[in-house]
Design brief:
By secondary structure, this protein is α+β, with helices and mostly antiparallel strands. The chain has 13 helices and 49 strands. Helix 6 crosses helix 7. It is elongated.
Length: 888
């Protein structure tokens, strides 16, 4: 039989109730100095405040700089203590016990808290300079202290209203039953959780978020939240029923928001309180917590039941429980460890059954398929973090993350697509997602690398190799380079960062081993010896023999800039393979539509550098147009004037201007003879409007270009342009061979922004094509920038040399020369023992791991030894062919 509150006598247990009885019960923010705070003791015994302070956070700046100690103040049972400004009106001062001008000088955007031993015990207001309580009186309607301000807990009265100040009955929600003792219902965690999306004692559909009933439940403490984490995880603790109810549809665990003094993991507690739905998370708001014994809770492996229609209901059934994510849970890393702008802290994302594809990667924007993908992504997601805010650098739950393993790199890394095998923690819910608060520690075996690191692209065959590479703002102007025409720097902020950035990009370019490479996001500071493109080419060429070295495309006068942006597109190439035939710049459309609101109507995008090369010792011409379409993060005229700021179809901003770019680019490319490629960062996912224009437009479908566009001074489209229903028929060669390939990750969705498109005739000459997962798949913490990475080790290897994946294609345009025998491949570097490799998840390339292919080389680094081997391999692999061609 369950123990009742009467049975839990003070002689048998340790009670935490006294602290729970102390709370802020009224707040007055009136005119002039009419300000007051009332503190209540809702319990049955006198309480002397020891360790308490009343504190103010000016403008919600997350600091409690203004404090007033309350030690020694005694508040009787059912009584209140009032603090007011010394210059308040007579009505307020007549009910005041103490005056103050330090804390009681608040405005409506200054949170007020009761601190206990320095930690928030109860709070009114929210951080971030928000007017939660300006010119109002707020009276508390519940008797529950909380570390998160809940607006619904407070009754709003008119400005300067002090009726009832100094009386608990009219302040802290007096008894609703005529003063009779409150009825407490003995229950279980499982009964409070229920088998639906919310507790059966609440009804969020009718805005009933707190139960009418007060319950007594028991459970074992599995985790303790010492201090509030942001605004979503208040001080409290997780408990779990010792036996459960053998019903898989009800969770055996729950979160208790309340005091933790004297609690330890493993304590068996009796908790009294109401059940509440807190933004979708079922919790108990404790008014009494008693330790009645101890026990242990075994970890529960997360498994989907046969009748779980969606995976998030599987998680709902485990909400509040101590769980384990092993490899049989089928959870994959969907976003590597990094910063999350929702709760504004570092964490990681994992997803059921594979990666989360952007809704528009395989579906027309706003289509049923796109909406289904969006829902699927939300259903399968878990956020992984700790119960304290993680510092910059490595995750707290992975202490050896990023540490040097003695070879100049690390085996302790996490990549997109890795299978999780052994993360334990308690399961909560906030910001619309389930969250696993880790309680164990990870190591290199916690993540099975289903998407392994490859030290070179996974493409095979001989031919002309053409690649695209976004170099993530390679700027040399701050380091004695040529001046940027805009006077800005988007890249490295220190010389050490710049050197590391260059080392990583150079290592990647050498391993890429392409004959022509289109570069995006390289500084637009000319073509001279001190330009960024010259600096990068010099850095790469140091690592290569003469026959393998690069040159860069320049204008005939070897001067000037490409457009007027701080960054530009560039092309580097190997003169041993191709010769520049025609230098060409395709100027991209501009928009001048007039100001609408804050949008001035003038929008630009980067010009396309489009050289034509002649393949050496042949008559083949190859034109490569390198593009970087308008950013999704900008704002264009249509976004404001037509779409009212809404992201229609999840295409981001400026999709119409990108459509105009695709239309103009397609028309210009149609005028060029020979093999034609459009490569680069098109800032559009696989089925978004610009891609449909360039590749294949679905039947009975059309897209709209931007209004009021110009090519230089020449008008392109007016205020009422025609919809586009035709396409130029370019072939997306990578998606043809690898439909699940991706090149970029935003939040926890993956898709392609970087492309290699070829005209239909050239498509028949494609030998192989692929994306090389060295950047987007890796943690951002391994980038060159030291901002927010603390003391995490940085490596001059090719991994996370940028934020976009490179892509490469091989074209059969080199002629019919006999191919020489290839030298033996270097041995594969030793790899640590790993659990059995699973089948790669959907969303990862199922051809990237092929242990039977002698042409594969897996490696964890491109340090000095492996880089030397790789350089030598690239030289010998291709020099024989070139020697024959150049000397026949």
């Amino acid at each position: 039989m369950k123990k009742t509150i009467l049975y839990l006598s003070a002689s048998a247990i340790f009670s935490l109730a006294a602290h729970a009885d102390i709370l802020i019960s009224e707040y007055i923010e009136g005119s002039s100095f009419n300000k007051a705070i009332e503190i209540a003791n809702t319990g049955n015994e006198l309480v002397t405040l020891i360790g308490y302070e009343l504190a103010k956070s000016a403008n919600g700046n997350n600091e409690w700089a203004n404090r007033l100690p309350l030690d020694g103040i005694a508040i009787g049972a059912g009584d209140v203590f009032v603090l007011a400004h010394s210059d308040a009106n007579a009505d307020i001062l007549s009910n005041t016990d103490m005056t103050d001008t330090n804390v009681i000088s608040f405005n409506g955007d200054d949170p007020i808290a009761l601190l206990l031993n320095g930690d928030v015990h109860d709070i009114i207001g929210v951080m971030g300079d928000q007017n939660f309580g300006k010119d109002v009186t707020l009276v508390r309607q519940s008797r529950i202290a909380t570390t998160i301000y809940n607006e619904s807990d407070w009754l709003v009265k008119a400005k300067n209203n002090s009726d009832g100040l100094g009386s608990l009955d009219s302040s802290a929600g007096g008894s609703d039953n005529g003063g009779e003792p409150e009825t407490i219902i003995e229950s279980t965690i499982m009964a409070l959780q229920g088998n639906g999306w919310s507790s059966p004692y609440t009804d969020p559909t009718t805005e009933k978020y707190i139960s009418d009933e007060t319950f007594l439940i028991e459970g074992i403490v599995t985790a303790i939240q010492v201090n509030a984490l942001g605004n979503d995880l208040p001080q409290g603790f997780f408990i779990q029923d010792e036996l459960g109810d053998n019903d898989v549809t009800t969770s055996d665990g729950i979160y208790v928001s309340g005091f933790i003094v004297g609690l330890s993991i493993g304590d068996k507690v009796a908790v009294t309180g109401k059940v509440k739905e807190d933004y979708g998370w079922t919790k108990v708001q404790a008014t009494n917590v008693d330790v009645i014994g101890n026990g242990t809770i075994p970890v529960t492996n997360v498994r989907a039941a046969s009748d779980d229609n969606e995976f998030d209901f599987t998680l709902e059934r485990h909400e509040g429980m101590f769980v384990n994510i092993d490899q049989h849970a089928d959870m994959y890393v969907a976003r590597t460890y990094g910063f999350d702008y929702g709760p504004f802290r570092n964490n990681m994302v994992i997803a059921k059954a594979g990666l989360n594809l952007h809704p528009n990667q395989l579906n027309i924007p706003a289509s049923a398929g796109a909406n289904s993908q969006l829902d699927d992504n939300e259903d399968r997601r878990i956020i992984v973090e700790t119960m304290i805010k993680a510092p910059n650098g490595a995750p707290l739950w992975y202490p050896t993350f990023g540490q040097d393993d003695g070879t100049g790199t690390t085996n302790d890394y996490i990549r997109n697509g890795d299978l999780v095998n052994g993360l334990e923690g308690v399961l909560g819910y906030s910001y619309g997602d389930f969250r696993l608060y880790i309680t164990n520690q990870a190591d290199e075996f916690t993540f099975v690398h289903a998407n392994p690191r490859l030290s070179r692209p996974d493409v095979t065959g001989e031919g002309l190799r053409i690649a695209t590479f976004n170099v993530l703002n390679y700027f040399n102007s701050p380091f004695d380079g040529a001046e940027n025409p805009t006077g800005t720097n988007r890249g490295a902020t220190t010389y050490a960062e710049f050197e590391l950035q260059g080392d990583k990009i150079a290592a990647a370019i050498v391993a890429l081993d392409a004959d022509i490479i289109g570069l995006m996001e390289i500084e637009n500071n000319g073509f001279g010896d001190s330009s960024a493109v010259a600096h990068l080419v010099d850095k790469v060429n140091i690592l290569l023999p003469d026959v393998e070295q690069y040159a860069f495309v320049t204008s005939p006068d070897n001067a000037g800039f490409i457009g007027n942006d701080a960054i530009a597109n560039q092309v580097i190439y190997k003169p041993s393979m191709v010769t520049l035939d025609t230098y060409r710049i395709i100027k991209m459309p501009e928009q001048h539509a007039g100001q609408t609101g804050k949008e001035n109507g003038d929008n630009y995008q980067r010009d396309a550098i489009t050289p034509t090369f002649k393949v050496n010792d042949s008559e083949e011409l190859v034109t490569v147009s390198v593009n970087h379409f308008k950013s999704k993060g900008s704002t264009c005229w249509e976004d404001v004037a037509i779409q009212n700021g809404e992201d229609v179809g999840l295409q981001g901003s400026c999709e119409h201007l990108r459509v105009s770019a695709a239309q103009h680019l397609g028309n210009e490319m149609a005028l060029i003879a020979g093999n034609k490629l459009i490569i680069g960062d098109l800032n559009a996912y696989g089925q978004e409007d610009p891609l449909l224009v360039l590749t294949n437009m679905p039947e009975n479908h059309s897209v709209m270009p931007a209004r009021m566009t110009y090519i230089g001074d020449e008008p392109m489209a007016g205020s009422d342009p025609n919809a586009i229903s035709d396409s130029f028929g370019f072939v997306n060669v990578i998606s043809e061979q690898h439909p699940a390939a991706y090149s970029f990750i935003y939040n926890d969705t993956v898709g392609t922004l970087d492309y290699i498109l070829v005209d239909s005739e050239t498509a028949s000459k494609v030998v192989d094509a692929n994306v090389w997962h060295i950047n987007a798949s890796e943690s951002k913490l391994f980038e060159y920038s030291s901002k927010y990475t603390a003391d995490l080790a940085k490596y001059p290897d090719l991994f996370r040399s940028s934020d976009h994946e490179p892509a490469i294609v091989i074209l059969d345009v080199l002629g019919d020369a006999d191919q020489p025998d290839q030298p033996d491949q270097p041995d594969q570097p030793d790899q640590p023992d790993q659990p059995d490799q699973p089948t790669p998840p959907s969303g990862t390339d199922d051809t990237t791991s092929n242990d039977d292919d002698e042409d594969e080389w897996y490696g964890g680094s491109t340090g000095s030894l492996s880089l030397s081997l790789l350089t030598g391999f690239a030289f010998f692999r291709r020099f024989g062919q070139r020697y024959i061609k150049m000397n026949r």
